[in-house]
Write a structure and sequence with these properties.
It is a single chain. By secondary structure, the protein is of the alpha/beta class. The chain is built from 18 helices and 14 strands. The strands form 3 sheets. A 6-stranded parallel sheet has the order 2-3-4-5-6-7, sandwiched between helices. Strands 9-14-13-12-10-11 form a 6-stranded mixed sheet, with helices on both faces. Strands 1-8 form a two-stranded parallel ribbon. Helix 9 links the parallel strand 6 (219-222) and strand 7 (256-259). Helix 11 (273-283) packs across helix 12 (297-313). The chain is globular, with a radius of gyration of 23 Å. The chain starts with 9 loop residues before the first helix and ends with a helix. Residues 1-6 have low confidence and may be disordered.
Length: 495
């Protein structure tokens, strides 16, 4: 492959600089290392790139050997969306659990510890926190990734999270502007639409972004959503009205604007990734996130060529591309400076479990005796959304197995799930685990069947806690991370 950019090819170098591509594997491929020498300034990491902290540290060192100020980005929200612990489950309970506790200092400490762990591995840019107000409980993609349904609560915890993360020397990227909470469609699959009035949007959706900007969030990620009250024609990622007039001018934000994954269907299926990237830059975005799905050299070449061609044709002003590239480089300089001056260790390595324990809500419907014998854990499992993925385990079976060796488990779904769980459990006491029961009628029916036959069943409700407490013991964890399962297991079978 010929070199795309020479030392004097400013246009192509700027086009590479605004891209945030991903790749496959746990070491950097040669093509990616070459692009870092040609102008590429950012690399996005996903679960497929992480095997262990030691491997991740070696990977980021490999990237920095080619470019010492490279932005190494990751989607590490804690809770459901974890890349550092994609195969074990997160040590942090996630935003909704933190919102349920509503202790902003706890949220700051959690974000600080998460940031320290990222920084220790050489990651300096986190596509987090989610500042979405989860006002629609049927939302299929936000849910427990949000601090809650109240804009003031979300605002104060977003600010605390930004403050904690950036104190660790990791740039925060507050998302998904102007707010993805009031949607019923996952933008990974199609174009969501929010039909709230401009007045509602400014009072509700924008409040957390005001707080994030005031807290100094170094980046903001745009949402692939159509908001007719703000722009009836284009989704936020491609809208000058939303990115420039609203975010830049009205909210006074001067940091980096990053798109959500440009290959997501909301953009790729309607505009295509090349034209979508051009429109996003023209609208005011500074960096194009790509690589969650498309993660190859050809994608980088296609997008770079599209941006260069758009400048040459006059569709994308050259000064707009140069401005965007300058913002990327400015953030890279910040991370390089802050890495050595990050906050010292405050001894909060178990803060995620502390938060998970505080977030648990317990309802004892009948007198309850803690389990002393190994139970059967019946997990009623919905299909995970793309942001979460299918690799990350959740539930309480692993933790109960540690406390009560011999614990057995099964996963059930569909109309016959309740009966199947009863048969599989045999004579064992049942612990039923549900997740977002309010969104899955089959799950409610299965639980009804199970509890009618076995009223001593313990119910662990993960995800958004909207179910009526049922069973001998009902535990709402306000999350589904590994530490949420640990906190629930400690109640079921205390030592």
């Amino acid at each position: 492959m010929t070199t795309l950019a020479s030392g004097t090819d400013t246009l192509t170098r700027d086009a590479l600089t605004v891209l945030q591509p991903g790749f496959t594997g746990t070491t950097a491929p040669d093509w990616l290392l070459r692009r870092l020498g040609e102008g590429l300034a950012s690399v996005g990491l996903f679960g497929r790139n992480v095997a262990s902290p030691e491997q991740l540290t070696a990977l980021t060192a490999q990237l920095r050997a080619e470019r010492d100020d490279v932005l190494v980005a990751i989607d590490e929200e804690g809770g459901d969306v974890t890349r550092l612990e994609v195969r074990t489950g997160s040590s942090f309970p996630g935003n909704h659990a933190l919102g349920a506790v509503d202790d902003v200092e706890l949220t700051r400490q959690v974000a600080l510890e998460l940031g320290r762990r990222l920084a220790a591995c050489g990651v300096n840019f986190n596509w987090a926190p989610s500042a979405d107000v989860n006002s629609n409980p049927a939302n299929p993609v936000i849910g427990v990734r949000s601090f809650g349904a109240d804009q003031d609560l979300v605002a104060r915890h977003t600010a605390a999270y930004v403050t904690g993360l950036q104190a660790a020397g990791v740039a925060a990227c507050t998302k998904h502007f102007p707010g993805h909470g009031d949607t019923a469609v996952d933008s990974h699959h199609a174009m969501p639409r929010i039909d709230a009035t401009a007045e509602v949007l400014r009072a509700r959706e924008l409040a957390p972004f005001h707080a994030a900007i005031a807290a100094g969030s170094l980046a903001v990620m745009s949402a692939h959503i159509l908001v007719p009250a703000l722009d009836p024609a284009r989704p936020a990622t491609l809208s000058p009205t939303i990115l420039t007039d609203l975010l830049r001018t009205e909210l006074g934000y001067d940091g980096l604007i990053v798109t959500d994954g440009i290959e997501m269907q909301a953009i790729s299926a309607t505009y295509g990734i090349e034209h979508g990237s051009v429109l996003a830059l023209a609208a005011g975005a500074d960096a194009i996130c790509v690589g969650g799905g498309l993660s190859d050299e050809e994608t980088v070449r296609r997008l770079c060529d599209a941006l260069v061609a758009a400048v040459r044709s006059g569709e994308l002003p050259e000064e707009r591309l140069a401005e965007a590239a300058d913002r990327v480089r400015a953030l890279a300089r910040w991370t390089a400076t802050k890495a050595a001056a990050a906050a010292p260790d405050e001894g909060t390595s178990d803060i995620g479990l502390v938060a998970a324990r505080r977030a648990v809500h317990v309802t004892r419907v009948d007198p309850f005796t803690p389990l002393a014998e190994a139970p059967f854990v019946a997990s009623f499992a919905p299909v995970a959304n793309i942001a979460v993925g299918t690799e990350t385990p959740w539930g309480v079976a692993a933790e109960l197995g540690r406390l009560l060796p011999g614990t057995e488990t099964g996963s059930f779904a569909g109309e016959d799930a309740g009966h199947a769980a009863i048969v599989a459990a045999g004579e064992r006491r049942i612990v039923a685990v549900v997740r977002d029961e309010h969104r899955h009628p089959w799950m409610s029916s299965a639980l009804d069947v199970l509890l009618k036959a076995r009223p001593d069943t313990i119910v662990v409700e993960m995800g958004l806690p909207r179910a009526t407490p049922r069973g001998a013991l009902h535990i709402a964890t306000n999350g589904a991370a590994r530490v949420c399962g640990t906190a629930a297991a400690e109640i079921i079978a205390p030592r």
